[in-house]
Specification:
With 160 residues, the protein is of the alpha+beta class. 19% of the residues lie in helices and 34% in strands. It contains two helices and eight strands; from the N terminus they run H-E-E-E-E-E-E-E-E-H.
C-alpha cells in the first residue's frame, strides 16, 4: 500500500505539466431577449503555445456558433465569442461547452479538458411595459380614492 502511494507521488513529481488551462468563473448565459452572444474566457498558464479546441454537448449544441479552436501563446488570455443565430427564438436550453488542450506525446500524455455550463434563455421582452402599466394603475387608484377638497362654487344667475 505504501509503495503504491510513494509511486503515485513520484509519478506526479516526475511528469512535467503538459498543459494548464484556466477559464472564466461562473456559468455562461445567453439571454436572447437582450443579446445573442456570450464571452468565454480562457487562459494558458504555460510558458509555451497551446492549441485549445471547443466542443459542446446537451440541448445547446446544435444552436451555438464559436471558433472550433484557438492558439494561445504563453500566459495569454482570450475571450472566445459564443453566439446563437439571430433567428433563434425557441425555449430555454442548457448544455456544456468544453475546452480541450492535448498534452505532449511521450510515455504519458496528459490532456486537460475544462467544462462550463451554458444556457440559452429568453426573458420576457415586455417586463418594463408590465411594470409601467402596474405603476399607472396604482397611480389611478390613488387619485380615484383621493378625497375632494371642499370648494365653494359661485353660481352666476343669468336672466333669460
Amino acid at each position: 500500500m505504501s509503495k503504491t502511494i510513494l509511486l503515485l507521488c513520484l509519478l506526479f513529481l516526475l511528469i512535467p505539466s503538459s498543459s494548464a488551462l484556466q477559464q472564466s468563473v461562473g456559468s455562461l448565459t445567453i439571454d436572447i431577449s437582450k443579446t445573442h452572444m456570450a464571452y468565454y474566457g480562457i487562459r494558458n498558464d504555460l510558458n509555451k503555445t497551446v492549441t485549445v479546441t471547443f466542443t459542446t454537448t446537451g440541448d445547446t449544441a446544435k444552436y451555438l456558433k464559436y471558433e472550433p479552436g484557438i492558439t494561445l501563446n504563453a500566459s495569454e488570455s482570450r475571450y472566445v465569442v459564443i453566439s446563437v443565430p439571430w433567428y433563434y427564438y425557441a425555449g430555454d436550453k442548457s448544455g456544456t461547452i468544453y475546452a480541450l488542450t492535448e498534452g505532449d506525446n511521450g510515455q504519458v500524455k496528459v490532456n486537460i479538458q475544462l467544462g462550463k455550463e451554458i444556457s440559452i434563455i429568453n426573458t420576457p421582452r415586455y417586463t418594463y411595459i408590465i411594470i409601467g402599466i402596474g405603476l399607472i394603475t396604482i397611480l389611478m387608484l390613488i387619485l380615484k380614492n383621493r378625497k375632494p377638497k371642499n370648494k365653494k362654487y359661485k353660481i352666476n344667475k343669468v336672466k333669460i
